[in-house]
């Protein structure tokens, strides 16, 4: 038996309880978790913004050590450190054929499988976003693990599995930020802080961080922000004032709210790029009129998983870490146990802190 954070039903509180994991069958791997990040996507699963089968073990950003492998698994062995990949690409769907593996049509097929059983009543549990990282141990498909790059501690490596791939990818793959350009990052949570660091790595001339909390300014500036704006109805005007009344070349929205998306759009210069990373609900309606779309010539794009290919991008990110350009620890504002996850959810709802990291 291992302890895990279980979502019994959409909208219900998480339960920290014992679960029984099966032995890894053919093509599967058992992993003892070293750490797992508490991501806003987990909150979106718990409140129904994103839907997966429940009851489920949540958690999708994690790293750990392989303890056992099933028949046919050759890419990893017991004792190997691995990063969990919650969205493995199938390699054969239309998106994968185009090289857009982050849009794989089959990436979340595993979420409907039976992952484990509750120890108290033997009821079936699903694996949330495929990997069920909010647990002391997990069993996943072999394509859901990637080797931890050399020189990266396991606890830090957990952050590579979502926050850093997403934030870095939003800046480098989606917005394609160039050296000397200006950028605004909306939301200074885990993904936003990663995006700020990515903008610094890209050589942005001005990096504006925007958040509702004045308390996050120091955190944002450590991540690379040159300016900090407390969100208000005047945010777009303030950002334009910081950029010679032009607006930023690129805006990265990491919140997923209609008002924030609209503000990010209005903060972007004529011909600029607005990238939406935040996951919003269906009720979050963003409106534009036809004339402004023509006049401003801006690009508005969604961004899934940072438009990243984990197998390609993890070694690149590791290089930035080893060279001191990317500080994974700077994303973490609290280290908790499994029992602290419900409080970490409350902090996310209230807009407090960066990334909470569950350390096992």
Can you tag this structure with a few keywords?
360 residues, 26% strand
Task: Give a nutshell description of this structure.
The chain is an alpha/beta fold. It has helices spanning 40-47, 94-97, 154-157, 163-174, 190-202, 217-223, 235-242, 258-266, 290-296, 310-322, 341-350; strands spanning 2-7, 15-20, 28-38, 56-57, 61-69, 81-84, 116-118, 124-125, 137-141, 145-147, 182-186, 206-211, 227-230, 248-253, 268-276, 299-302, 332-336, 355-359.
Descriptive report:
- With 360 residues, the protein is an alpha/beta fold.
- The chain is built from 11 helices and 18 strands.
- The strands form 3 sheets. Strands 3, 5, 6, 9, 10, 17 and 18 form a 7-stranded mixed beta sheet that branches. Strands 13-12-11-14-15-16 form a 6-stranded parallel beta sheet, with helices on both faces. A 5-stranded antiparallel beta sheet has the order 4-1-2-7-8, with no helix packed on it.
- Strand 17, helix 11 and strand 18 form a beta-alpha-beta unit.
- Helix 4 (163-174) crosses helix 5.
- It is globular, with a radius of gyration of 20 Å.
Structural category: alpha/beta
Element-by-element helix/strand order: EEEHEEEHEEEEHHEHEHEHEHEHEHEHE
Strand content: 25-35%
DSSP helix count?
11
Please outline the major beta sheet. 7 strands, mixed
Unreliably modeled segments:
none
Considering DSSP H and I runs of 4 or more, what fraction of the residues is helical?
Answer: 25-40%
Query: What is the mean predicted local confidence, pLDDT?
Result: 96
Distance between the termini: 15 Å
Shape: globular
Number of strand segments: 18
What would you report as the Rg, rounded to the nearest angstrom? Answer: 20 Å
